[in-house]
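Raw record, unedited: Prokaryotic metallothionein
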Amino acid sequence: MARCEVCGNDYVMSFEVHAQGAVHVFDSFECAIHRMAPICEHCMVRIVGHGVEVDGHWYCGGHCAKAEGGTGIVDRVGTVAPA
């Protein structure tokens, strides 16, 4: 068993996430997201999907990036990929 670094739960099904040379231990995806997901710099929501990066700043999507002055952003939400 290993102890979750967010909530402290000592859980038999804990898991490790290896990122940028560090090893993190969590007992749930919820705790992993809480610790590791970036935060949108416009609306402050945790970015669980791909997000949008503009000049080193992270946003949850094109709308928030544009609201902060980002340009040239293509948000493909609602489009269908070719089959």
